[in-house]
Automatic annotation (TrEMBL):
Pfam families xref list: BING4CT (PF08149), WD40 (PF00400)
Species, as recorded: Aphis gossypii (Cotton aphid)
Gene Ontology BP annotations: maturation of SSU-rRNA from tricistronic rRNA transcript (SSU-rRNA, 5.8S rRNA, LSU-rRNA)
InterPro entries assigned: BING4_C_dom, WD40/YVTN_repeat-like_dom_sf, WD40_repeat_CS, WD40_repeat_dom_sf, WD40_rpt, WDR46/Utp7
Subcellular locations according to the entry: Nucleus, Nucleolus
Residue intervals of the BING4 C-terminal domain: 312-390
WD repeat intervals: 230-264
SUPFAM superfamilies on file: WD40 repeat-like
Protein name (record): BING4 C-terminal domain-containing protein
Keyword line: Nucleus, Repeat, rRNA processing, WD repeat
Keyword Cell wall biogenesis/degradation annotated: no
Length: 486
């Protein structure tokens, strides 16, 4: 009990010290997240995007725009630093752009169906799940790889800290591909039917899948069975989302309900909301806002996980059916891909105002991007460490004890000292070299000793180790010659 109490005191002191350090560092983070102040008696859901764009500055107003395209429905994805936008239409249209400056990086038509698009570790590479296989392109639209091991893929997720591209196929296969080496880590059949819903937990890098029986399963590349299962709804799950810190998970089903679950305890639901129809897509922002797509309407809920709310924070009506939603990192912007193209919506308070330039830098230069890529490769986390409980900041005690036991079990008994006396014999014509004869004899004696040692059982070797350790200790080197003779 004393050790437990002592460790608890040490943890409390460390937490207090960390709180003081973070409080002192708040001086360096002066930016605050935005918000909307409504007039008395006015609801924020009545505020339109036109009113928001007229109320903000010119730079922020330009972030609200619409792209009218004819190859939908569209899937969208933002890069890790939030600067680049990738869109992919079901009819084969793929485009990458810097959505802030409206600079088009590339635009291609793959001439077949596109089911999902995903940026990789930076804006130089992106993957496209096409009708048959998964293809990788550079930022100029040039095909780099064709991954024939990944066929009939419906959804993709990229794990930036592990450099893994995870895919879910129509036949029910789960795959993890190491992008840095081009090696397929593992691929197996989940035996859960068609995998139509997929997302990742940013905290422990587990892949979360939603199934038709109302079950959410969590998968790791190290096991061929789900590490956890949660029965969320009594019928098919229509959308799934996990927040940025991996604490809460939101699910929606055909019963027209949205439930919030605690991922750490795998219990719940913490909150249960009723909506007018089943949502098609859900996504969390960096600050915890939940965006829900219901047919052609986008509802944004604020702080819906920690407390029960009565109405939405913002609401926007789009003329076409919404297919996919995505919050832009470090920006108060929500992207919506629909049948008629793409829409960029303003959501004050959804983005993280203070970013770590060493982690994700929206304003990085070409040299900084190269240095960041090298740093990410050096700090790459192995796929073996993807577990239900995050063990990145902990010591693997079992592996350490195994290595220590293996090191102690080695045969470390020193060979006995061999005294050799060679007499100089002078023959008539040749003169023998005593040093060479001594080396040969010593080598033969050593080999005989090793053979005899390997032939002995393990118990005798342990006894020999104990006698050697008793005969000479660590502190015996400081004794003088007289004490050693005694």
């Amino acid at each position: 009990m004393g050790k437990v109490h002592q460790s608890r005191i040490i943890n409390e002191t460390k937490n207090k010290l960390a709180a003081k350090i973070s409080e002192a560092a708040n001086v360096l983070l002066p930016e605050n997240s935005g918000y909307i102040i409504a007039e008395p008696g006015e609801k924020t859901t009545k505020i339109t995007q036109t009113q928001l764009s007229n109320s903000v500055d010119v730079t922020s107003a330009k972030k609200h725009f619409d792209l009218q395209l004819d190859f939908g429905p569209y899937d969208i994805d933002y890069s890790l630093n939030g600067r680049q936008l990738l869109i992919g239409g079901r009819k084969g249209h793929v485009a990458a752009m810097d959505w802030i400056t409206k600079h088009l990086m590339c635009e291609i038509n793959v001439m077949e169906e596109v089911y999902d698009v995903k940026w990789l570790h930076n804006e130089n590479l992106f993957s496209v799940a096409q009708k048959k296989w998964v293809y990788m392109y550079d930022n100029q639209g040039v095909e780099v790889h064709c991954l024939k091991n990944l066929n009939n893929v419906l959804h993709q997720e990229f794990l930036p800290y592990h450099f893994l591209l995870s895919t879910a196929s129509e036949e029910g296969f789960l795959s993890w591909l190491d992008v840095s080496m081009g090696k397929l880590i593992t691929q197996f059949n989940a035996k859960m039917g068609r995998l139509s819903l997929m997302t990742q937990n940013p905290n422990n890098a587990l892949i979360c899948l939603g199934h038709t029986k109302g079950v959410v399963s969590m998968w790791s590349p190290n096991l061929r069975e789900p590490v956890a299962k949660i029965l969320c709804h009594g019928n098919m799950i229509t959308s799934l989302a996990v927040n940025s810190n991996g604490l809460y998970m939101a699910t929606s089903g055909m019963d027209r309900s949205i439930k919030v679950w605690d991922v750490r305890k795998l219990k719940g639901p913490l909150q249960d909301y009723k909506v007018r129809t089943s949502p098609r897509s859900m996504v969390f922002s960096q600050t915890g806002c939940l965006a829900v797509a219901i047919n052609n309407v986008v509802d944004v809920y604020e702080e819906c996980c920690t407390k029960t709310i009565q109405h939405a924070y913002l609401r926007h009506n789009i003329a076409r059916t919404i297919n996919n939603l995505a919050f832009c990192p470090f920006e108060d912007v929500l992207g919506a891909g629909h049948d008629g193209g793409f829409s960029s919506l303003l959501v004050p308070g959804s983005g993280e105002p203070n970013f770590d330039a060493l982690e994700r830098n929206p304003f990085q230069t070409k040299k900084q991007r190269k240095e960041a890529e090298v740093k990410m490769l050096l700090e790459k986390i192995p796929a073996d460490m993807i577990t239900l409980e995050s063990t990145v900041d902990e010591v693997d005690i079992d592996t350490f004890q195994t290595k220590l036991t293996a090191r102690n079990s080695l045969q470390t008994v020193k060979p006995l000292k061999i005294n050799i006396k060679v007499r100089n014999k002078i023959k008539k014509k040749t003169l023998a070299n005593p040093s060479k004869i001594k080396e040969k004899i010593l080598e033969e004696k050593t080999k005989e000793f090793v053979r005899a040692l390997n032939a002995r059982p393990k118990d005798e070797i342990d006894d020999a180790k104990s006698t050697v350790s008793k005969r000479f200790g660590v502190l015996d080197r400081f004794q003088n010659k007289r004490n050693k003779k005694k």
